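Milestone M4 deliverable, item 7.
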Amino acid sequence: MADNNIYIKKASGDRVKFSIEKLKTSLINSGADNILADSITKNVRDELFQGISTKEIYNRAFALLKAKQSHLASKYKLKKAIYELGPTGFPFERYVAAIIEASGYTTKVGDIINGHCVKHEIDILATKSNETYVVECKFHSDAGLNCNVKIPLYIFSRFKDVQKKWNTNLKLKTKVTQGWVVTNTRFTEDARRYGNCVGLYLLSWDYPKNNGLKHRIDTHKLYPITVSTLLTKREKQFLLNREVVLCKDLINDAFYLDHLAISKNRKTRILNEIKLLCNQN
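Output delivered:
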């Protein structure tokens, strides 16, 4: 059966036509050259069947890429790796703060702020020059869950309450000027429309176009520790519990691998993979 007649099942449950070019592009974006990308897409295409899930396609492509170049497989699994920052969402907040800092902001995570009406626990306060942004993170561990319009509606009301109190406090050196909503999934069309209408900055996996989470992560090489194909789930959780969220953090704090009783040889392999990913080899 020709691959252009194959319909695949997305995490949301929607059925869409399979695109061999989309698969190849995702592999090339992960650093694979054309020869490797063509080889993997051919293998995946030969195993397609009607109704195959995007997860099954991803798993097969990932396994083939990992067998060839593990550090490229790490980059390929970026989206899945962000889901693995859960389940609490707190590592995701730390991760988003690091991404925002790469754009020149200073950040605070988890501050309790007085609003005009009530107190609020703010995920991230991001400050640059004389402006402070109120950033709320919406982490989903399920790829099928998107942020609907209720999320920006709720966050905008919190933002306005904080802004009203903050901007009348003469002791503060900055003004709260904008609210942000950041999610690891996607916003519905209504959520985007509302956010744009009221001036909320929405940041998701691929939104805004060419400046979404994926673009920012790739640009600044801010890969989460969960992308590693060599660390176990237990080892990743150990590191996250110690606020080692970024791969580059582990490069600087490699002694944590000794705490995990990881052998010298395996430690070298783990660090080499991460350095290749972060272009620090």
